[in-house]
């Protein structure tokens, strides 16, 4: 009761302005593929750790010294679960996006107008991209944390 009075009291004294605002003609509703593209790019950037990369500013790749004393490039920062190189984040993000696209491709096989050959190709492509991203991300985790997920 008191809360409702607090919400309505200012509007008994104040009056809304009579504005005639029109939407500009160049503003249009974006297409579904534009919204999907923006969502996919933002998904790629967020899962790739771009926010972390901007704040911490890690190197793009690291380097290690082998037994002969030569410097070798390293794409994954081993034994550091809370840190990453830029290329490590982007490679992982690409595989996350590939797996997500695989599920989207699998969803397209339900279209009743899709011919049988195209349906089979879509199924193979979708399942292949999901499996490829899953197993490659497992390989990345083993490179990141040796001994993890091993029997």
Radius of gyration: 26 Å
Order of helices and strands: HHHEEHH
Largest sheet data: 2 strands, antiparallel
Using the alpha-carbon principal axes, give the shape.
extended
**Mean pLDDT, as a whole number?**
91
For the secondary structure, the number of strands is 2
3D architecture notes:
- This protein has 5 helices and 2 strands, in the order H-H-H-E-E-H-H.
- With 151 residues, the chain is mainly α.
- It has a two-stranded antiparallel ribbon.
- Helix 4 packs antiparallel against helix 5.
- The radius of gyration is 26 Å and the shape is extended.
- The mean pLDDT is 91.
Any key phrases for this structure?
151 residues, mainly alpha, 5 helices, 2 strands, extended
Short description:
The protein is mainly alpha-helical. It has helices spanning 2-13, 32-47, 50-56, 86-108, 116-144, and strands at residues 62-65, 71-74.
């Amino acid at each position: 009761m008191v809360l409702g009075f607090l919400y309505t009291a200012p509007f008994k004294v104040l009056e809304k302005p009579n504005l005639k605002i029109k939407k500009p003609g160049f503003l249009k509703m974006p297409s579904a593929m534009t919204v999907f593209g923006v969502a996919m790019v933002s998904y790629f950037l967020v899962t790739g750790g771009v926010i972390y990369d901007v704040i911490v500013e890690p190197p793009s790749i690291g380097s290690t010294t082998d037994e002969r004393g030569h410097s070798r490039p390293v794409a994954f920062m081993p034994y550091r679960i809370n840190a990453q190189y830029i290329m490590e984040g982007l490679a992982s993000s690409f595989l996350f996006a590939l797996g997500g696209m695989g599920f989207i491709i699998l969803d397209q096989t339900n279209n009743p107008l899709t011919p049988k050959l195209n349906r089979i190709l879509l199924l193979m492509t979708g399942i292949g991209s999901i499996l490829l991203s899953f197993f490659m991300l497992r390989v990345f985790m083993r490179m990141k944390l040796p001994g993890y997920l091993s029997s």
